[in-house]
Write a structure and sequence with these properties.
Elements lengths: L14 H26 L19 E4 L14 E4 L1 H7 L4 H8 L13
Antiparallel strand pairs: 1-2
């Protein structure tokens, strides 16, 4: 049996250039997160929860209009959000997510009727 081939970076890119690009993006994202936090405070753009106690790497930068729906990577399309909202929204359009987020919630507890 032949072992699986080790994946190589595409387009002749070497691993070092891929890593340096990733590091550059992480620094740009950290700077953007700091700017958004300075403008709006450390609150989730969607649900308003306080995210000031989360580690900087745990706060998420979400695309307000998903890339998959034609959104861009421009700073004006990014929002500082909590992990729960970021994972729940995924690639949902903003209007659909806000409807879902503010839906009437059912209690998981039942109140006994007397």
């Amino acid at each position: 049996m032949n072992p699986l081939p080790i994946p190589q970076p595409e387009d002749g890119k070497n691993v070092k250039s891929v890593r340096s690009k990733r590091n550059k993006n992480q620094k740009q994202n950290a700077a953007l997160a700091a700017r958004l936090a300075a403008m709006h405070g450390y609150i989730c753009w969607y649900c308003g929860s306080d995210i000031s106690n989360t580690a900087p790497l745990e706060s998420h930068l979400d695309h307000i209009f998903p890339i998959s729906a034609g959104g861009t990577n421009h700073d004006s399309n990014r929002a500082l959000v909590c992990e729960v909202c970021d994972r729940a929204k995924w690639n949902m359009p903003l209007s659909d997510f806000l409807k879902w987020l503010h839906r009437p919630k059912k209690s998981i507890y039942t109140i006994p009727q007397s």
